Amino acid sequence: MEEDKSKSENPLKVNRRHFFSQLSVGIGSLALGSLLIPDLFKGGKGPLASQPLGIPHFAPKAKRVIYLFQSGAPSQLESFDYKPTLTKRMGEDLPESIRNGQRLTGMTSGQDKFPLMPSAAKFAQHGKSGAWVSEFFPHIAKIADEICIVRSMHTEAINHDPAITFFQTGSQQSGRPSMGSWMSYGLGSENQNLPSFVVLTSRGKGNSQGLYSKLWSSGFLDSKHQGVLLRSGKDPVLYLNDPDGLSRSDKRHLLDHVSSLNKIHHVETGDDEIESRIAQYEMAYRMQMSVPDVMDIKKEPESIIKLYGEDSQVPGTYAANCLQARRLAESGVRFIQLYHQGWDQHGNLPNEMAGQAKDVDQASAALILDLKQRGMLEDTLVIWGGEFGRTNYCQGNFDPKNYGRDHHPRAFSIWMAGGGIKPGITYGETDEFGYNIVKNPVHINDFHATIMNNLGLDHEQLIYKYQGRRFRLTDVAGNVVNDILT
Amino acid sequence: MAQKNSSPWVDYVIFGLTVFLVFCLIFESFIDLPSLVAWLGRWHPLILHFPIVLLLMAAAIGLFNRIVPKLLLTIATLSALVTAITGFFLGTETVPKGDLILWHQWMGAGVAFLAVLWYWLSTNHLQQTYLVKGIQVILILLVGFTGHFGGMITHGEDFLAMPRSKKLEKIPENPLIYEHIVHRVLDNSCIGCHNPNKSKGELLMTSIGELIKGGESGPALVVGDPVNSELIRRLHLPMEDEEHMPPDGKKPLSDNEIQILERWIALGASDTLKLSDLDNSEPLAGMVKKMMEEGTSNSWAKLPKVADSTLQNLASDYVTIQRISSNSQALSISVFLPPDYDPKNITDLKRISNNIIELDLSGIPIGEKEMEFVAMCKNLEWLEVDRTPLTDTEFDKLKGLAQLRVLKAYETGITDKSVAVLKDFKGLKSLYLWETQISEVGFTELKEALPNLILDHGIDPELKREFIEKDTIVDSIQ
User: Which residues of A touch B478 (CB under 8 A)?
Assistant: First the structure.
């Protein structure tokens, strides 16, 4: 609607297409034509035209998401997918009937043998649900009855960048809006004083892969839906405090004036990004008040700090980010995206992965417990997982104490909790080698469809038309995984 | 030559409106209406009565071989055109158009065009030909059908059917799967045609026995075997298939409803099975719960209407008001602490108190005034008053909130005195009381009074200790 208005106000925004469409109405409608605003041949927005934005399509199960992204792809075989067969057949070559032509990365394509490698971490069943969790994750094991482990995730991408881009944007090629941006676009903001999509990053000691701001970009959506990266140092947002001598009311005058100049510019050029810019200045002004308050971890009692682990007092650690994530969720941020780097264990897996797991295990589990005692698991969806899995065979030298695993897109494990996801279940199954899915596969598109469903959005209805094509987060695929919903 | 006295501009107007209507119908999918025009559409239900009466009158006069007064025909034709055009405007508000609307639209347009044709013939002195008689007969029929279809759009498809007592009673907390769930699905979609009065295909669906007995196509239900049950087979056929049930024009069953029927048959089509008998991992339990939840959102249908403009006026940077879902009157409100808090920020919401289903006042320094307002929100199902300075005195005001399902009251000053208030929330499903002054005795009392309640008063102390002590990661691996 905004768009229509600006079009009628600004002649520069009428392009060739609008001109012709107006012309054709002009002929047919005679004098009455002026009654119909000529949006002819624009194609409308389909069924979405009757679905106002910023409101769920149906009553949601979750109001917000905390996505604990484990960047680099943690091995499913040392975490949640227990495969005793690998121990029994240790060192044997992966049968061709199992690999079945799966392409390899450049890192193992030179290997002439693919010896099966069992997990260095021991597994045990936990909780009433009897979920298998490895000893790398002792705290997550203790909350096994709160989470839903999905062991049958699969993707098409085989390298980090396309895989993580796929998870975050629904496409392997960059340029599409991030999940968080779609949610912000579809559901609007819960708290007007904070961005609806916030990103926090941390880095472990393990082999890590890059993170780029394109992962939280709003793509073709309005830039106000872009993820806001909060820095891990002392100042989460740089230059948040006004310089000495500038009072809050001076600042207000300054912004009002800048805004009026920007509005003049907008009338001249009709560039919608100017309006976004005005809105962002306003958001930044409000964030000056809201962010220091939300980010002030000192208000947390000792027992909560200890629950997340001592690390949570050190800014920039995963534990600190988890605690921060809870505070942001309480303050009404819709989508809180964490990234923890360092999960790319091509070599030295047992050591590196143990270290990575130590970084995230307690804080991830503590987040679930903390959300639960605040009743926030009722409407907050927590997701933990990487971009793909790792191979069941060894990369590099065959040494059960120090081995590596390559990228594996065909099957991997993630877990979810709260926000309308059934607690205490394990969903999907891989074959005895942990290589292929044999039961209930969940594709990334299905994963996206399910998350959107729990947030009250029909993934087939949240559509944005751009450059002559309609776009969805799930593009042309995706089925809601009903079996894991409460 | 009475016709001569009509001025030519009437002809022009009729011609213009006809062209406009044709244009609208042809370019329908490309038209986005400005709100003024959409508003004109709202007059359709008023104006439509004129052409019905006038055209029927004119046609009847004609059929009795009397001269149809030109003025009557002119006004009838004009009103038919205006009605068709406003109807078209009104119809564009519904996307996509259902079958009923499409039929109504084209028949309505047909009425208008026939009227114009008749008008044109009569201006050309062709009052008494058989062609005109034919038009009059068709007009009478068409007006009747158009009106009937229009009626079905506004009043529901079965508004002319014999009144039937529709029981839309609430599904009980622990329903019998057959009686309260399966039978309800069948009753809504199937039993209308498969009952002792109207047994289509000689099939009755009023009891499990009748289903097993079946009809013309054999048994409708094979116990334990959904794949070979005719009932399920027909539900799964493509919509275009002759044999698909429910037949064309009737509302199909939802996926969830179909799955419920399938799973219930697979589990043995029992009439004594209860929801509580089902294991948590049994998919049927989830499906039934889903259906029960859909039932609750239906109860929101009775909420008073609240305009978007009202919501915009009441919302601010610190008060977020959202509809729980689009087209719903149920509201979810979150309040965040402004730098200059005033109870008025909350009490101003009085105007919409009946529509508030979810209210989040976490962390707001609320007191008596705010709680008086909360007590007015009779339909409240979800209340967050955690991290507030509440004490038993203010908490007492919540007494009347009979619909509460979720209540978060952790980090407040309430004590065992409030347990009495809490015990009265019979529908309460989850309650969060971590860091309050309520004692173990109070918790026990609550659990006894509300056995189905999930009561959370903090992380299990044993588990908490394991977290707070040193990390336990196994050293042997490193």
Answer: 351, 354
